[in-house]
Write a structure and sequence with these properties.
mainly alpha
Length: about 70
């Protein structure tokens, strides 16, 4: 999945990523570098990104560090 993200294979990444449980999507997101997170913003819809943030267990002020 990560390789598809690095290679710019949007559909392959989306297919693999969206098969994950929402909690696992959030976990994957927080483990990535800012560069990878930016690419995820480009590949996923706003609703899909919102679902990731819904599953993050963070304080409000910590959320700024995730962007």
């Amino acid at each position: 999945m990560l390789q598809a993200l690095y290679d710019g294979k949007i559909e392959a990444f989306r297919k693999q990523f969206l098969k994950l449980h929402p909690y696992d999507r959030a976990k994957f997101y927080v483990e990535q570098s800012p560069e990878v997170r930016k690419r995820m913003y480009e590949y996923l819809s706003p609703a899909e990104m919102a679902e990731i943030f819904d599953h993050l267990d963070i304080e409000e002020d910590e959320s700024l560090a995730l962007h």
